[in-house]
Amino acid sequence: MIIDLHRHLWSIFERYTSVREIAARGTAVGHAHGDGVVQDVEVRAGEIRAEMEKAGVDRSCLLLGDYGLRLGEGDRSIAEENRLATDLARADPDHFIAFFGVDPRRAGAAELFRDALDAGAKGLKLHPCSGFSPADPVCRPLYELAREYSVPVVSHTGPLAAPLVSTYCSPLHLDEPAADFPDVNFVILHAGQRAYFDLALDMARWKPNLYLELSLWQGLFLEDEARFVARVAEIRHGIGLERVVFGSDCPGVSTVMALDGWVDTFRSLPEIAARHGATVTDDDVTAMLGGTASRLLGLGS
């Protein structure tokens, strides 16, 4: 089974009219800007299913970043956007898994999360670029619920363009939650990106409930295959590739590499690694592409 643990219904540019200017002036590559029109969910779901079929992806986890307290509210309310994901996952569980995304500073965030869990959500998504630290006590009620319902917490790491802020996007802000909630699994999305990769890996060495996810690494692979392989080798030697989960961050990075290309990259890692004197086994690939995520999500074998 192949599981994309990091998928979105719409990019940030499609969701937030106020963010379109990021695309115009930003230097970071890899985010589809969209046309500013939030599509019908069934239309978008059909597009994603077709993309998944082409790539051989069995399940896509729908993550939602809540930027409203930083950017102003999106074209839909955060409650409505979360309902779209949970309703879609309930209607089509063979393709979709919903995570609940919220800024923990929102009034009633924990109650909204519990409602989403009762409606079938399988995890929590945090996006500290909105201006909060995952170590802030305001997050603790959400982690308590993640523990109660045995679901993982995934959190963005690595810098992003203004008006989003990078202050709290170091994986270091996940250290205290991982220590205080050792029975909750935390996924370091983007594995810290280039700025914080070494820190993310070192933290994961010491805390077995920390996992790494490698979306936004598409650009690194295309720019410098040898460096990409070297980092994968570091992870393998440091914590084992069974602590890595596959994610695409589509549609945001689809302009850099399509979903099927990214899946094929992982499938080909044994051969790619060998070209650079490193080792990745078929068992490693199986774990990264879905085995580990299946376990984190409680899907069984």
UniProtKB/TrEMBL annotation:
Keyword Lyase appears in the UniProt entry: yes
Q: Per the record's keyword annotation, is Lyase included, yes or no?
A: yes
**Domain of life the protein comes from:** Bacteria
The record ties this protein, via InterPro entries, to: ACMSD, Amidohydro-rel, Metal_Hydrolase
Q: Its Gene Ontology molecular function terms?
A: carboxy-lyase activity; hydrolase activity
Q: Spell out the protein name for this chain.
A: Amidohydrolase-related domain-containing protein
Known PANTHER family for this protein?
A: 2-AMINO-3-CARBOXYLMUCONATE-6-SEMIALDEHYDE DECARBOXYLASE (PTHR21240), CATALYTIC_ HYDROLASE (PTHR21240:SF19)
**Domain called Amidohydrolase-related: residue spans:** 3-299
